[in-house]
Amino acid sequence: MTDPITAPSHPLRLGVSACLLGRPVRYDGQLRSFPSVISLLTQPLELVEICPEWELGLGVPRAAIDLHYRRDGSIEVVRRDPPKPLTECFARWWHHRQAAFVQAPLDGLILKARSPSCDPSGRVPVLLAPPGTTAPGVFFAAYRDAFPHTPSITEEGIADERTRDAFMAEARQRWRHRVGMAPPA
Ligand code: SF4
Fold it and tell me: Which of 29, 66, 166, 180 ranks highest by number of CB atoms within 10 Å?
């Protein structure tokens, strides 16, 4: 009997930072390969590539972006050189991207660690904030607010067998819920 999770019409669907797949979208235009990201995942998958900064139209190469602390406690996204606030730009992009994720939900996210856009681990330094303040990337933060039950992992987590297995178990649970095989988690 065909395992429905591997059936071509219903693959597990994972969002992935495009640079982790070797796409030339990094701010510095440099290619970096992360071969373990996909090769360690053994089952058939549908991968949804995401690069918030490229999709925003920031170009390649582009100035790096930073997260800045605001007096009201929120986070401002700022292009570094020349400085330019990008928070509203991100919000507009997210408004449209979120609608696409509602139409085609993801079962999990594999995202680049320490990226001010993508990081899911909360380790991005926040400038102008009390020393040691860190936050997740702005895309991940928006995604988590909208879809709080979607599991996430970094490329570092994928390289660790136990962390990877735990992530995939959670992603499979989300998949079962999405295709109607289990109650909500
Ligand atoms: S970390 Fe995210 S925003 Fe940066 S290049 Fe990779 S996919 Fe794009």
Answer: 66
